[in-house]
Amino acid sequence: MKSALIVAGGKGLRMGTELPKQFLPVGGKPVLMRTLEAFYTYDPEMRIILVLPRSQQEYWKRLCREYRFSVCHTIADGGDTRFHSVKNGLALVEAPGLVGVHDGVRPFVSQEVISRCYALAVEKRAVIPVVDVVETVRHLEGERSTTVNRDNYKLVQTPQVFDAALLKEAYEQPYTSHFTDDASVVEALGIPVFLTAGNRENIKITTPFDLRIATALIDSCSI
Ligand SMILES: Nc1ccn([C@@H]2O[C@H](COP(=O)(O)OP(=O)(O)OP(=O)(O)O)[C@@H](O)[C@H]2O)c(=O)n1
Ligand SMILES: C[C@](O)(CO)[C@H](O)COP(=O)(O)O
């Protein structure tokens, strides 16, 4: 059984819009619909679980009717942190199988990346997409700072795909603020995570600037 857990339970403070960022239209369609469609296109048979704050669920259902959005999915309640949102959604995920956790605000993940992450996870059990750092990086040490070797770093994307039983076990651990993604939760069990190439367009729409990039991406290519 393959599942996709799409998390959209955040507050979007850095975006700062009244309408939660996952509902903002990009190219005439709410971001979140584009994200769910990416997983449906990859595998129409997979189970899609969408995590949303309870207060936004009725609005989402109205949007789905308005846009005649027909991708089948189940809704789970958002939590106080991303960790807690994932944990709520995981309660609806079946094991054995594979589960990919994906940010609702990453609508530009490529079919190739989704497909490769799920395929690799069959053997590797824990797979995450990453991209190169394309700028010089400095490490801050008090008043001073030094340039570090960027080749020692990667930027992490989603979907992060796991053996479902393994991810459920990992999310039984107590929360710590170091858990910024699913890989960090699994690694805390002592399980290594396999890195594979992400796609550069797979941005996390976080700030108003990202929204402009998202619009430009829609205008400039057929993602
Ligand atoms: N309690 C939370 C926090 C985050 N997320 C989700 O995790 C993804 C990555 O988080 P980010 O984009 O940084 O979202 P926010 O936490 O909403 O942003 P901010 O920190 O600006 O408030 C998003 O799809 C977001 O909705 C979630 O499901 N539940
Ligand atoms: C999971 C994630 O998208 C990987 O880049 C990220 O860790 C979540 O975003 P946040 O901004 O740290 O909440």
UniProtKB/TrEMBL annotation:
Annotated site residues (Positions MEP for the nucleophilic attack) in this chain: 150, 204
Enzyme Commission code(s) on record: 2.7.7.60
GO molecular function annotations of the record: 2-C-methyl-D-erythritol 4-phosphate cytidylyltransferase activity
A Gene Ontology biological process term: isopentenyl diphosphate biosynthetic process, methylerythritol 4-phosphate pathway
EC main group: transferase
Pathways involved: Isoprenoid biosynthesis; isopentenyl diphosphate biosynthesis via DXP pathway; isopentenyl diphosphate from 1-deoxy-D-xylulose 5-phosphate: step 2/6
Transmembrane segments: none
Site residues, Transition state stabilizer: 14, 21
Keywords for the protein's UniProt record, in alphabetical order: Isoprene biosynthesis, Nucleotidyltransferase, Transferase
Catalytic activity: 2-C-methyl-D-erythritol 4-phosphate + CTP + H(+) = 4-CDP-2-C-methyl-D-erythritol + diphosphate
Pfam families tied to this protein: IspD
InterPro entries assigned: IspD, IspD/TarI, IspD/TarI_cytidylyltransf_bact, Nucleotide-diphossugar_trans
Biological role stated in the UniProt entry: Catalyzes the formation of 4-diphosphocytidyl-2-C-methyl-D-erythritol from CTP and 2-C-methyl-D-erythritol 4-phosphate (MEP).
Family membership: Belongs to the IspD/TarI cytidylyltransferase family. IspD subfamily.
Classification via HAMAP family: IspD
Protein's name according to its UniProt entry: 2-C-methyl-D-erythritol 4-phosphate cytidylyltransferase
Gene: ispD
